[in-house]
Design a protein that fits this description.
Blueprint: E1 3-8, H1 16-29, E2 34-39, H2 41-44, H3 51-68, E3 75-79, H4 85-94, H5 99-103, H6 106-112, H7 121-135, E4 141-143, H8 149-165, E5 175-177, H9 212-221, H10 240-252, H11 257-263, H12 269-296, H13 298-327
Parallel strand pairs: 1-2, 2-3, 4-5
Helix pairs in contact: 3-12, 4-7, 4-13, 7-8, 9-12, 10-11, 10-12
The structure holds tryptophanyl-5'AMP.
Tryptophanyl-5'AMP (TYM) is lined by residues 5-9, 17-18, 21-22, 40, 43, 130, 133-134, 142, 144-145, 147-148, 182, 184-185, 194-195.
């Protein structure tokens, strides 16, 4: 049985992209793998949240994951900062990572923007901590959305460098799992940028906490074009917003994009949007209701996270000790 590791940043505003691109896949894989799902609060620190905001968002993340179907009996759900070995390994790996590799990371370039000199060091070394997250558990598979692909290639490069440097076969090369449907859900306002927590417009994304009225309004306002829906995706290549909505419908209804295009061929977007709205509400509303009840009972959340963190700590410290032996640290 393979071992899954994946993570989500507790930065609030969890959206349909997070759900379809990542969370739902984690839920569906629970029976086939040994699972570690981590709320990566150390990564969230790169956004410099206040202590109050960070705590609220960590609880929200836990509630979101449990409400979406993460089962603590099958998945070890835990908080990154509760397992110190992540940071310890991150330092070791940072000494094996060249600046040239980090300079190529597109996510850093996007997030730092034009103010590169002002960006914090944590944002720059973010992918090294991500590598440590995965490698400390010797995970074999990492299910993520497409935006994480480059980071995962770096993880494999770092694992290879470690093995070569110390002439060992210690780290496996973790395989990304990026499912074709919903690998990249785009903004509802601009089909060329991904649906993202940090987009200033609330109308660009559907939050998992949106109520049915909000969802209806956001889909009604979602950008489309006046053309009817074509019978196959190829014929819609230059219509990114239209394709994105069809893609969301396909993912939510577990169909291929081809099937959805064929089913709605010739229709305009007004009737399609009604169907899409109903489909989103059918999937999101029960999750929202469960989130509300989890958030009312923080003690349940805290107990689950505590248990998960204990188990993660055991495995991580055992592996860290092996790594320290390989490196030649003198244990005192
Ligand atoms: P984060 O918190 O930004 O996103 C969590 C997951 O959601 C996916 N995702 C999307 N998928 C499809 N369409 C979208 N519009 C969309 N937006 C987000 C992301 O790909 C991700 O899988 N760096 C990671 C967190 C992390 C991690 C790790 C992941 C830290 N350590 C180790 C895997 C393994 C991140 O930024 O997630």
């Amino acid at each position: 049985m393979g071992r899954i590791f994946s993570g989500i940043q507790p930065t609030g505003n969890f959206h349909l992209g997070n759900y379809l691109g990542a969370i739902r896949n984690w839920v569906r894989m629970q029976d086939s793998y040994e699972n570690f799902i981590c709320i990566v609060d150390l990564h969230a620190m790169t956004t410099r949240p206040t202590p109050q905001t960070l705590q609220t968002h960590i609880k929200e993340a836990a509630a979101t994951l449990l409400a979406s179907g993460i089962d603590p009996e099958k998945t070890d759900l835990f908080i990154q900062s509760a397992v110190p070995a992540h940071c310890e390994l991150a330092w070791i790996l940072s000494c094996l990572t060249s600046l040239g590799w980090l300079n190529r990371m597109t996510q850093f370039k996007e997030k730092a923007g034009k103010q590169r000199e002002q960006a914090n060091l944590g944002l720059y070394s973010y992918p090294v901590l991500q590598a440590a997250d995965i490698l400390i558990y010797k995970a074999t598979h990492v299910p993520v959305g497409e935006d994480q692909k480059q980071h995962l290639e770096l993880v494999r490069d770092i694992a290879g460098t470690f093995n070569r440097q110390y002439e060992v076969d210690y780290f496996e090369f973790p395989e990304p799992i990026i499912l074709k449907t919903a690998a990249r859900i785009m903004s509802l306002r601009d089909g060329s940028s991904k649906m993202s927590k940090s987009d200033p417009s609330d109308y660009s994304r559907i939050h998992l906490m949106d109520d049915p009225e909000t969802i209806t309004l956001k889909i009604r306002k979602a950008k489309t074009d006046p053309e009817p829906i074509a019978g196959n995706p190829k014929a819609m290549e230059n219509r990114p917003e239209a394709l994105n909505l069809l893609g969301i419908y396909a993912a939510l209804s577990d169909q291929s994009l081809e099937e959805v295009c064929l089913a709605f061929e010739g229709s305009t977007f007004a009737p399609f949007k009604e169907k899409l709205t109903a489909q989103i509400i059918m999937v999101i509303e029960p999750i929202r209701q469960r989130m509300i009840s989890f958030l009312k009972d923080p003690e349940i959340l805290e107990n689950i996270l505590k248990k998960g963190s204990e188990k993660a700590r055991d495995l991580a410290s055992q592996n860290l000790s092996e790594i320290q032996n390989i490196i030649g640290f003198l244990k005192t």
